Hints:
Blueprint (H helix, E strand, L loop, with lengths): L1 H31 L11 E6 L7 H9 L6 E7 L6 H11 L4 E6 L8 H9 L7 E4 L4 E2 L4 H9 L4 E5 L3 E4 L4 H23 L10 E4 H6 L12 H11 L3 E4 L5 E4 L4 H18 L12 H11 L4 H25 L7 H17 L5 E4 L2 E4 L13
Parallel strand pairs: 1-2, 1-4, 2-3, 6-9, 7-10
Antiparallel strand pairs: 4-8, 5-10, 11-12
Helix pairs in contact: 1-6, 1-10, 1-11, 2-3, 6-9, 6-12, 9-12, 10-11
Amino acid sequence: MTNLLADLASLVAVAGLAHQVIGSALVPQITAAMAQAPIALPPVSLLKPLYGSEPLLETALESCFVLDYPALQLVFGVADPTDPALAIIERLRARYPNVDTTIVVGPDPQGPNRKIGNLINMFPAVKHDVLVISDADMHVPAHYLKAVVASLAETGTGLVTSLYTGLPATSRLPALLGAAQINHAFLPGAALARRLGRQDCFGATMALHREQLEEIGGFGSLVGYLADDNVLGRLILDSGKTIRLAPVLPATSVTEQNLRDLAQHELRWARTIRALVPAVYPGLVLQFPLFWAALGLLLSGFPTVGWALALTAVVIRYAAARRLERQLDVSRVATPWLLLIRDFFSAFVFAASYFSDAVEWRGYQLRADHGKSASGVLLH
C-alpha cells in the first residue's frame, strides 16, 4: 500500500509539473495578444473602492492618475470619513490637479459585501457609460485603459477582465510567498483554464458598459455575495455575452507581514473557490508538485530513483518560474527553496480549506457557501 501511495504521489507530481510548464508558457501568449483597436476611445469612469491604507497603496493609486487616456474620471469611495486612504487621495489630487477626480465618502456600505456596498454608494457620482472597476492595490501600466477599452469594443463582449501578477511590498518571506502563489500558481492555472474554454472574471479588472450593468440588476445583484467577481461573470455569460481577457497585466500589492495573515488571506480564496466549484477544486492539487514529489520520496523510503524525481521536479519547477518572470518582466521571487516552501504551504492551505467554510475579510467573519445560487458565494 505504501508503494502504491508513493507511486500515486509521484504521478500527481509529474502531472503538476506538466500543468506548471504548459500554463507558464501560455501566460505570455495571452497577455501579449493584440486586441482590435477601437474606432474611438470613449470616456471612462474608473471606480476604486477603498478601505484603509497599506504599503504601496499610494504608488498603486498614483498609477491611475498617470494613465494614458484622453477622457477619464477617477471615482474613489470610502465608508468612513476618517479612513487614512483619503489623505493619500488628497495628496494625489494636489499632485495631479488636471485629473477629473471624484471622492465619495459614506454612508455605511449597503449589504454584507462591503466592497460592492461601497460601489453602490459611488455609482451616482459616475459620469460616463464605460465603467472599469479595479481593486485599490492594483498597479496599472499607462496603456491599461486603452487595452481594456479595445477589448470591450470587440463584438459580443459583455465584460472585460485581466490576469495580474503579485508585487511583494517587502522582502519578508510572507510577501514573497504570496507573490509566488499569484505568479507561479494562479497565473499558469488561470491561463490554462482560459485556453481550455473557461471564461472567468477576475476582480483585478472588471469593465463593462453602464447599460450592461443595469441589465443584470446593477451592483445590487452582487452585494449578497463574497465572490462578487464570479457572480458578475456568471450573470454576463447568462445574458449571452462573452468575457474577454484584456492584453494587459497589472500587478497587485502583496502586503502580508506574517504567515498567519497570509494563511487567512489564502484560506479565504481557497474556501471561496471550493464553495463555487466543488467538483473542480480537488484539481488544485496540481499546483504544488514539489510537495507531492517530496511525499513520494518519503513514502518510497528515499530510493535513488525517488531522489532523482524530486531533484528533477525542483529543477523543472524553478526553470518554469524563472522563465515566466523574465518573459513578464516582473519581480523575481522564485528560488528553489522558496518554491519548495511555497508548495508545502499551498498543501497546508488546501487541506485546511476542507475543515471549515469560515473566512475572514476586512475584520469580518463570513461563511463561504454556495447559498441559493450556484454562481456565487452567499454571505451569512
